[in-house]
Amino acid sequence: MKKRWIGMMLLVLAVGIMSVTAYAVTQEKDAAAGTGTIRIGYAQSDEYSSYAQQLLLLAEKLEEEGSIQKGFSERYEGVNYDSEFEAGDTVKLWKDICENNVEGATYQFVENAFFDMDLTPEKEYEKMVNRDDVDLTLVMGTAPGTYFRQHEKKNKYMVLLAADPIASNIVKSETERYDDLSYALVDTTSYQRQLEAGHRMLGFKKLGIVYEFSRDAYEYTAVDTIREMGKKLGFEVVEGYVDEPVSAKDEARYYRELKKAYRELVDQGIDTLYITVASIDYPKKLKELLNDCIIPSKIPTLAQDDVSPVENGALFGVSLVDYEEQADFLIGQLDRYVKEGVSFDQLDMVCECTPKIYINYETAKQIDFEISFENLQLVDTIYR
Questions:
Q1: Cα 301 to Cα 369: distance, rounded to the nearest angstrom
Q2: Could you tell me the end-to-end alpha-carbon distance of the chain, in angstroms, rounded to an integer?
Q3: How far apart are CA 169 and CA 175, in angstroms?
């Protein structure tokens, strides 16, 4: 009798524990599903056209979803920040998005939660994280992604357009995070695809690169991947170093040293220049840089950044991202978390975009580079 009584008590206790656990899980799921509003902030490492382009397309997708007022996208019809970006455009876009919030909608953008680390004193970086007025921050780039990983202890954040979020320790892998607050858009093969396509088109044996000799630049220019692909495809990597400009007054020094670095690469016999992601003002400065020694030496150029370098004089480019494809993917993941109750740390992070290939026909003529008919069929856009 006593044993039966103890057994019944254990059964009741087990059922109670299961009920409490189920209730807790349900509550957690309901909290994630969020019948309320998700308040969104923004942080970037510098002003890049790719950040503005991605933000614009995310806003357009959220207009379709109902969180941004109808008609918002009409004023941006035809705008391509990759080719038309100017300093200050991202913050202007952010303010416009915030002014077009739909009251009571699922997603709300917080106007005073916009940060540019390049314009923010280091002692004020802490204002970006652990805020009471945001639930989620869109983080553009490696540097702020790393900062959020180390300092954000309260709110969710999604790192976009970081060169290699795994190597940067923003996330552990394509499926693992360091905590349940973090998320990073991952594409571990983008630079590999770019270099493979570039090598197929240009057939280089001695590839020159210039980047800042710092850990951040090493990561966002994917130097490890470039070296690995050199071993795989059989080309030598010749490296040069130039410090990025720290202010507008420092730009003259930067471009002067960049020209010098390019000349040194030419003297070392490079047969292709890989224009890595850097602070180059493509519309205003790229042709001047290339006309100094690269084009006169008939050396082809491969652009690591997106469309703008090819539009402004680089010979060849392969897109790393399709911003619209990424926007669709990200909004889909957000909706899974907010509307379907999927745990934030279970959201998919891998988005491999379809690459696009660009050629600058004028540059090809200048360096006497012949594009085969077979390769021409692979090109998506030709700039003349």
A1: 11
A2: 93
A3: 13
- Token pair 């090493």 in the structure block, residue: 218
201-211 in b/e form (b: 16+ CB < 10 A) is bbebeebbbbb
Cβ contact 210:230 at 8 Å? no
- Contacts of residue 256, Cβ cutoff 8 Å, sequence gap at least 6: none
Task: Please tell me the distance from the alpha carbon of residue 206 to that of residue 217, in angstroms, as a whole number.
Answer: 21
> Tens digit of pLDDT for each residue in 341-380?
999 999 999 998 877 899 999 999 999 998 887 777 888 8
At 83, list the tokens: 């080719």
For 156, the enclosing helix (H) or strand (E) is strand 156-160
pLDDT confidence band for 26 (50 / 70 / 90):
very low
Helix (H) or strand (E) holding 303: strand 301-303
Instruction: Find the range with the poorest average confidence among 40-49, 55-64, 81-90.
Output: 81-90
CA dihedral defined by 76, 81, 87, 91, rounded to 10 degrees? Answer: 50
Q: CA quadruple 257, 263, 265, 271: dihedral positive or negative?
A: positive
Rounded distance, CA 319 to CA 355, Å?
A: 5
Q: How far apart (Å, rounded) are the C-alpha atoms in residues 52 and 73?
A: 14
Residue with tokens 């909290």: 31
Q: Which residues contact 336 (CB under 8 A, 6 or more apart)?
A: 342, 347
Total residues found in the chain within this entry:
384
Q: Which amino acid is at 41?
A: G
pTM recorded for the entire structure: 0.73
